[in-house]
Specification:
alpha+beta, 37% helix, 4-stranded mixed β-sheet
Length: 102
């Protein structure tokens, strides 16, 4: 009787483990870049894929769109810093002062 229970438990655990592995294999790859969306669905913040600070409303975006969004004024996440990862310089500072003498 005990042997039956043990074998049933082992079979159930093996089945659960197989289901979990199958789920891991079927899970889509994490995107490189995501945009967090506001209530009205406009983009409010750009994140590196997998950033823990990204909200629940988000969609994956390609690299070029992430760059376009950041340069058009959409906020960059302060934690994962996608602007730094995309090598976007601070555009709010304006042009660098000229060092040449006139």
């Amino acid at each position: 009787m005990w042997l039956q229970r043990i074998e049933t438990k082992i079979a159930a655990l093996q089945e659960r483990e197989a289901e979990q592995e199958q789920g891991r294999q079927r899970r889509p790859e994490e995107p490189d870049w995501v945009v967090e969306l506001g209530n009205g669905r406009p983009p409010i913040e750009v994140h590196i894929g997998g950033c823990y600070a990204a909200g629940k409303r988000q969609r994956p975006v390609p690299r070029d769109e992430a760059r376009r969004l950041l340069t058009s004024g959409v906020r960059a996440c302060g934690y994962c810093q996608p602007d730094t990862a995309l090598q976007i310089l601070d555009l709010s500072a304006g042009p660098a002062p000229s060092t040449a003498m006139h």
